[in-house]
Amino acid sequence: MQGLDYLDEDTWGTVFRDVILLALIGFVAMVIMLLPHITKKKQDAEDQKAPGNVVVEMHWPSALPYDVDLWVQAPREVPVGFWNQGGNTFNLLRDDLGGEGDATDENYEITYSRGIPQGEYTVNVHMYGPLPHGAVIPVNVVVSVRPKYGEMGQILKTTIELTRRNQEETAYRFRLTSDGELVPDSVSTLRRTLITGSQKPYRRK
Nearest 10 degrees: CA dihedral of 16, 19, 20, 23? Predict the structure, then answer.
């Protein structure tokens, strides 16, 4: 009887080890099968962080409560800014008044595109409101592009200084191919007014 009891205990130990091993193998198999789905969700989250093909951002110091406006023009389209916040290509996602009705301390405006039309793009900054005498507003402008066969990356960055009301400066003029590649030697700061030279009155509601 003692021999049989010993045999039974050893058999149960073997069965227990086999069950544990099978459970471990099943767990590893489940993890392997879930990995592609986890990777896809991570990629989707990264895509959501950087929507749009052409992204134009404008920042100015948070301590300066002045109203600066971003204006962007896609090839063969009307400019997009505070009075025309959506076009066929660009949309202005944030119209920052510099301090009035602002939920955050950061001063910035941002514009996204849907697609990448081939041709010349213009990016302007406009000093909307009044400025104290001698005031200088440094405005940082960044342009990023997600090419057709690549990832989102910064292509242009500059700083514009605004010193007077209604001042409009061209931060960049540049050309993109249909694949979203920057055309060599196409970047310039040659002035092109998008708002102050138009017949549209630029009064806020």
Answer: -170
Under 8 Å between Cβ of 85 and 100 = no
Strand 119-127 with 168-176, pairing: antiparallel
Cα separation, 177 vs 113, whole angstroms: 15
Task: Tell me which DSSP letter residue 86 carries.
Answer: B
User: pLDDT digit of tens for each residue in the chain (205 aa)?
Assistant: 554 455 455 565 666 666 666 766 766 667 676 666 655 554 444 444 456 899 999 999 988 889 999 999 999 999 999 989 999 999 999 888 776 656 667 899 999 999 999 999 999 999 998 888 899 999 999 999 999 888 899 999 999 999 999 999 999 999 999 999 999 999 999 999 998 766 555 555 4
Report the 10 Å Cβ neighbour count for 98: 18
Model confidence, pTM? 0.72
Given strand 137-145, what is the order of strands in its sheet?
90-94, 107-113, 54-60, 137-145, 153-162
The 8-class DSSP code of residue 196 comes to T
Whether residue 153 contacts residue 50, with contact meaning beta carbons closer than 8 Å, is answered with no
